[in-house]
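Handout, page 2. Input:
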Amino acid sequence: MCAHNPPCPTAMAPDREAARPVAHRPEQGWSLLCNGVLVFEDTGELLPGGRIVAPHRPLALTVGSAA
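Output:
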């Protein structure tokens, strides 16, 4: 699907989010990557075969005192 040189990662590759966007709709909260992955602003993904990847934002670290 990708015509870039070097080619973008496939939809099943662990680094699939590094593929180039071919469509971007910030008002709707999604981008379509050249490997067919639909990435949502909450970091969830929809893969070309219909598999859903749950949002995977890094957890914020909280600093608290032990008192």
